[in-house]
Amino acid sequence: MSNSLFNFVVALPAEAKPLIAHFGLKRTQPDGEFPIYQNGSISLVRSGVGKEAAANATRFLLCNCNQRKGIIWINLGIAGHATREIGELILAEYTIDELSQQQWKISYPLDSPCKLETLTTLSQPEFNYTRSGMFDMEAAGFLSALKGNGYCLKIISDNSRQPGHGIKAKWVSRLISKQLNKIDQLMSQLSNQT
Hints:
Elements: E1 5-10, H1 13-23, E2 26-27, E3 36-39, E4 42-46, H2 51-64, E5 71-81, E6 89-97, E7 103-105, E8 115-121, E9 134-136, H3 139-145, E10 151-158, H4 169-177, H5 180-193
Parallel strand pairs: 1-4, 1-5, 5-10, 6-8, 8-9
Antiparallel strand pairs: 2-3, 3-4, 5-9, 6-7, 6-10
Helix pairs in contact: 1-4, 2-3
């Protein structure tokens, strides 16, 4: 994993916090709209909520980091799903921008530690759980900024049995913390694939 550079784009401080602690990341710029944290071969930018914010933060990290070949970009965050269990770690095999209907298909290692699912990026939060697949608000912005050259890794935070009204930051951080070993496994597999 040390030969690759991983760039994470996350929306929320609660999503970033476990990754910052796990990888020993330190903030590298004193201020700015999009905080950047780095340590060795890993960088992370916090975008805020929404497709446009994710696209802008991704471009900001592209412009402000020392980039090299073999970069692996990961959009990590929470997502809703009608039936999947809370806390499941899922890779987006297909990502769809609901507004523009643009689509991206991403290929993964055959022995991925995560299940694969379709992900739809929405413009507004949704709590009726009638659609199939996962849904979030950032992935399409992230992928559009990278021309599809990134991975979307989502942790199920809400479903039809446990709707997403009033999700708390500490709970989001706990969901992500519980998946850090699988995130490490996936990073190793992606690193070996490039």
